[in-house]
Amino acid sequence: MTTDNGSAVNETPDEANESPDEAVLPAIPVSAGALIFDRSGRLLILKPTYKSGWTIPGGVMEADGESPWEACRREVAEECGLDVATGRLVCMDFRRPRPGNQGGIRYLFDCGAFSDASLAGIVVQPEEISEYRLAELSTALTLLRKPIRRRVRAATRGRRLRYLEDGLPVAAVGRPRAGR
What we know:
Mean pLDDT: 87
Strand content: 25-35%
Number of helices: 5
Strand order of the largest sheet: 3-1-5-4-7-8
Radius of gyration: 20 Å
């Protein structure tokens, strides 16, 4: 193999036959969640069967090329039977890997206020969700698991997109650019 300037690059026989799909790439799990409110401003929260605490609708992106927005819509439909038509990206959180936790990237979309009629049609996926409720934001924040609580809190403070790392704002991101 040669580089753009024509110099030779040594490869092992295996590397020469390796396609890009076979190359070892970092595997970073990505998930997407939804903020769904009623007309009174209460947040929809779910009680999962497979972990403690409460969460919001959402889950892991499929590895078939699904986008974060598509994952959000699919997960909301699967977990509680709601059809999410519109949303606004409000938060992105990079979670560093730790022992016992693979980390990943978490997208959070504000999907707006749903009508009482739409919310009356909630049907939870019993294998994953044992119950749901609409809670005042202050109450929901006390019930949500810590990482989700941080994202929801950040996302509900104003209308701009929030960037977090491990659930915390990054000082150098999101501030107006200083004169150079």
